[in-house]
Each structure stands twice: as C-alpha cells, then as structure tokens.
C-alpha cells in the first residue's frame, strides 16, 4: 500500500498564475476588461475559431448558445445522456425539451445513427459533446446536422487541445462551448468560453453575457466622452473576471505541453494495460486525437465489478472515479422516459476514470495498473 494518495486530477497552477492574478488585482481592474479581451483573442486562435466570448462557465456558455439560436419551448434538443448533467440542463434553461440519444461504445460520443434514432420534426438543435476530450466525428455529424436543417452546438468543455481531421475541434464549429473548471486540462478556477466564426453572433453573445448592453463596461471606461448605454434585450450577467482571464492567459501557454504530457502518460497506460484481459482503455479515434482529459477504462469482461474496483483502488490510495455519468438515471430526469440507451448505460455502469495529471509519475502508474492486474487474476 502506498503512503501517498494518487489524485484523479490536479490542476497545473504555478507561480506564474499567482503573479498574473496578483497583477490583475494590483491594476485595479478586476471585472471583465482588457485581460478578458486578450484571453478571448488568444483562445479563439488556439481553438481554430474566428471569435471567442468568455463567460462564467461552460454551463452558462451552453445556455447562451441556445439563446443565440432562439431555441425555446416546444423545441426538442438532442443531447447525449452520457455527459456531465450541465449539457442536458442547458436545454431546460431555455424551456426546450432534452431528448437523449445513445453513444458510440469506443468514443462515448453521438453518431449520425444514434441521433437519427431519436430525431423528430420538433428537433431544433443537437448538443454534441467531445466527451472527455475524445472528438466526435466533426465532418460526418456537422454535415448530417446541416442536411437535417438542425443547429449543432458543440460541447467542447473537456476538449481544449483535442483535434479532429488535423485541426483543433473548434475549427468549423457553428458554436462551441468550453470549460475552464479545474477538472479540465486548463483552468481559470471557474470559467468558460464560446467560440464562433460569425462576427454578428459574437457581438450578440457579448451582449447576452452582459445584461443586453450595447456597449461593454470596459469600452465605456476607455472612452474619453461619456457613453450612454442602452439595454437591447433581457439578458444575463455571465461575465468572466480579469483575474480569471489573467490566470487563463498563463494557462494557454501551458496547453500544448500539458496535452503532450497527458498523451504520453495515456500511451504508457495503454501499453501497461494491454495484457490485462477484460479491460478496454479509451483511445484516439481514427479521425483525431484526444487530449485525454478523462482516461477511462471499460470493464468488458472483468472478474470484479466496477464499484468494487473503485473500492480496491481507493484502499490502495488511488482516487479513481466512476465513468461519465448518465443524466437520464439521475433524479432530476426521473420523469423522462428516453428511448433505449444500452451503450450509455453500459459505459456509465462499467467504466472508470484513472488518475491522469501533470504530477503523475511512472511509479504511480505502475501502482494503479498493479492493483488492476491483481484484481484481474482474482
Ligand atoms: C465540465 C463539463 C461541463 C460544465 O462545465 P462548467 O464550466 O463547470 O460549467 C459541461 N459539459 C461537459 C461535457 C463537461 O464535462
């Protein structure tokens, strides 16, 4: 039994982030301001998109994406049940109905077939998730959505640094929503981003996050002349602070290195796990590369059940997690009777997420795999 506990995730935060946050505080401008604007520009470039609009979280980003698309009561929005619950909740925020679709076993993602199985004339939009950082097939799903005349929102909460067809997953998305929660690869504490290519959409999203104002507080402050703002519609306060953006700017500089390191550690896990029967680790799909935000393992024909595996790992000082949740199994969605979701139910029941972070050592990995190997032969 190891002395130290191995956490499932640790954010990579250094002295540079602490200094950047302190500088933002000392500058006196702590609400949304120049650092947020710079963070948006740099993030959009990294994400392969024309414009970035920073918000308070990915949850609020998803909400604004649906407001932007004018999705509302009477509309159906297809979402994977296999996702963090915020994906489905965003649909309810606008009074629309989430309709759960099943996912592909290997990627955990929606496919044309699983969406087609639940699509109706009332389907207004789809929120497809790049689950745990694994990209969905953007070429196939984007063109299917277009042919159906249905908007495709991309929940890229976990996918900063993931690629599809050689490009960042945000490239070519109609609208993508990102998260900077500490459980993701880069963090601002809390925080989110919307990326779009359309300049008018970016302007509308900026208004929606800031009370519907036609001029931002930062622009008003920068003007020598008094600027009288107008409130064009009922909107929200979903702003990010300049303190968060200061941290985010440092984190952006770390993204490529963190993803490269995660991919190396994931490859080593895959190698070590290869000779353990009944375990299937997540892998890159043929068309892209995951950032391995979540390194999950499916227990396909393992002698020990998932929860018992988690308990054994915990007893050995390893914090693993159950696999990705399924929203339709939660009390909040108890009254929803979805179409059969066999793959979703299998993945959420039989998978677990192993520790993967910048501070994970080869010794830690050997320890984690050693516990699994012992269970496999039990
Ligand atoms: C984490 C996550 C969210 C929510 O992100 P927040 O920034 O915490 O609101 C939404 N969707 C998915 C798929 C996530 O993993």
Give an account of the 3D structure:
With 378 residues, the chain is of the alpha/beta class. It has two domains: 15-252, Aspartate Aminotransferase, domain 2 (3-Layer(aba) Sandwich); 256-376, Aspartate Aminotransferase, domain 1, CATH 3.90.1150.10. It is built from twelve helices and 14 strands. It has helices at 15-27, 34-47, 58-68, 86-93, 112-116, 138-148, 199-208, 217-222, 242-273, 306-315, 342-350, 362-376, and strands spanning 51-55, 76-80, 97-101, 123-129, 151-155, 163-164, 167-168, 175-179, 192-196, 279-281, 288-289, 295-299, 321-322, 351-354. A seven-stranded mixed β-sheet has the order 1-9-8-5-4-2-3, sandwiched between helices. The protein has a four-stranded antiparallel β-sheet with strand order 10-12-14-13. A three-stranded antiparallel β-sheet has the order 7-6-11, with no helix packed on it. The mean pLDDT is 96.
């Amino acid at each position: 039994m190891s002395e130290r506990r191995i956490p499932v995730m640790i954010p990579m935060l250094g002295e540079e982030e602490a200094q950047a946050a302190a500088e933002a505080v000392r500058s006196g401008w702590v609400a949304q301001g120049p650092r947020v604007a710079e963070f948006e520009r740099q993030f959009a470039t990294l994400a392969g998109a024309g414009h970035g609009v920073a918000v308070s979280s990915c949850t609020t980003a998803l909400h604004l994406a649906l407001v932007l698309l004018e999705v509302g009561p009477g509309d159906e929005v297809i979402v994977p049940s296999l996702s963090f619950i915020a994906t489905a909740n965003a649909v309810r925020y606008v009074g629309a109905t989430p309709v759960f679709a099943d996912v592909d076993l290997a990627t955990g993602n929606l496919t044309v077939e699983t969406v087609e199985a639940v699509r109706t004339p009332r389907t207004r939009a789809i929120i497809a998730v790049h689950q745990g950082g694994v990209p969905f097939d953007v070429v196939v799903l984007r063109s299917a959505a277009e042919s159906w005349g249905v908007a495709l929102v991309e929940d890229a909460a976990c996918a900063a640094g993931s690629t599809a067809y050689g490009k960042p997953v945000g490239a070519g998305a109609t609208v993508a929503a990102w998260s900077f929660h500490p459980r993701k690869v880069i963090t601002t504490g809390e925080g989110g981003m919307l990326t779009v290519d359309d300049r008018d959409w970016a302007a509308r999203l900026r208004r929606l996050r800031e009370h519907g104002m036609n001029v931002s507080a930062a622009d008003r402050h920068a003007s020598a002349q008094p600027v009288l703002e107008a409130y064009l519609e009922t909107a929200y306060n979903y702003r990010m602070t300049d303190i968060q953006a200061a941290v985010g700017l440092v984190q952006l500089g770390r993204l490529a290195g963190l993803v490269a390191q995660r991919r190396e550690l994931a490859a080593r896990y895959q190698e070590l796990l290869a000779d353990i029967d009944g375990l299937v680790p997540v892998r890159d799909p043929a068309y892209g590369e995951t950032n391995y935000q979540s390194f999950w393992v499916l227990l396909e024909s393992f002698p020990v059940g998932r929860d018992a595996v988690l308990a054994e790992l915990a007893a050995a000082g390893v914090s693993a997690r159950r696999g990705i949740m399924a929203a339709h199994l939660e009390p909040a969605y108890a009254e929803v009777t979805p179409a059969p979701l066999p793959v979703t139910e299998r993945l959420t029941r039989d998978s677990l997420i192993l520790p993967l972070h910048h501070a994970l050592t080869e010794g830690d990995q050997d320890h984690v795999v050693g516990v699994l190997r012992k269970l496999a032969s039990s």
